[in-house]
Design brief:
By secondary structure, the protein is an alpha/beta fold. It has 10 helices and 8 strands.
């Protein structure tokens, strides 16, 4: 499996940023780390290995950016307002550095976003905020509500980065149309501690008329062993069109 390491300075966070890329060709997937995870977490946890056959066959190419949760949502040394602003800086790195590189690297073929646990939050929030850029969304054991990190503080930046709040109120025809074109998979297990987060997200999508697949796996919990089963299965559903 081809593996590449990238490191660059980004003005959006005023720091160096790192990323691993796996594969030589195929549909591009941005795979976010879990809470406080880094760019090599998905490799070390063997999530990449679980999809090795799809990567080696040139069907999928995976981009693993670094995470900055320790500096944003989990940073109790700064105010909640600054936590969300740091997150917005992170989103700008993904939009302006990572996605722009992917377009250069693979061409205009669409892009997928994926993640496990809090990584699913990053994937989902990116997809729902920028549905013109993301064609596939794969969430595994996701948690999506950021109010747990802001200690009662709430402003527009918080609202527009909290999918359980902004999605139910979304009525812009352009946004809804773009999201409805997206292939969306919400994967969880009946033993997953985040099961309710995922069924709640599914209910919101259903009520907005947004097609998706809620996959609740019997006996599955909230851990890598289950996500390693889900990930290659979900990736295999990608066919280059806008729907799974």
């Amino acid at each position: 499996m081809k593996e590449e390491y990238f490191k660059w300075y980004t003005n959006y966070l005023d720091r160096d940023f790192e990323m691993l890329v796996f594969g030589h060709a195929g549909y591009p997937i941005i795979l976010f780390p879990t809470a406080n995870g880094n760019y090599y977490e998905n490799k070390d946890s063997k999530l990449i290995e679980s999809a090795a056959h799809l990567i080696d066959e040139g069907k999928i190419k995976i981009y693993c950016p670094d995470g900055v949760d320790a500096d944003s949502w989990y940073n109790n040394s700064i105010s909640p307002a600054d936590r969300v602003k740091t997150h917005i800086g992170y989103e700008n790195v993904i939009l302006n550095d990572v996605i722009e590189y992917i377009k250069h690297d693979t061409g205009d073929v669409g892009i997928g976003a994926a993640g496990c646990s809090f990584g699913a939050y990053h994937a989902a929030n990116l997809a729902f905020r920028h549905p013109d850029l993301i064609s596939y969304l794969i969430c595994m054991g996701g948690t999506y509500d950021i109010k747990q990190f802001i200690n009662g503080y709430y402003d527009d930046n918080c609202y527009f980065n909290n999918p359980p709040d902004y999605l139910p109120n979304l009525d812009d025809p352009w946004y809804l149309d773009q999201i409805k074109k997206m292939g969306i998979i919400v994967g969880t297990g009946d033993q997953d501690m985040c099961l309710n987060d995922n069924t709640h997200l599914s209910d919101i999508l259903y009520n907005k008329g947004i097609k998706h697949w809620l996959d609740i796996r019997k006996g599955a919990g909230h851990d890598w062993q289950w996500w390693r089963e889900m990930f290659p299965d979900y990736l295999s559903k990608i066919n280059g069109s806008d729907q799974v």
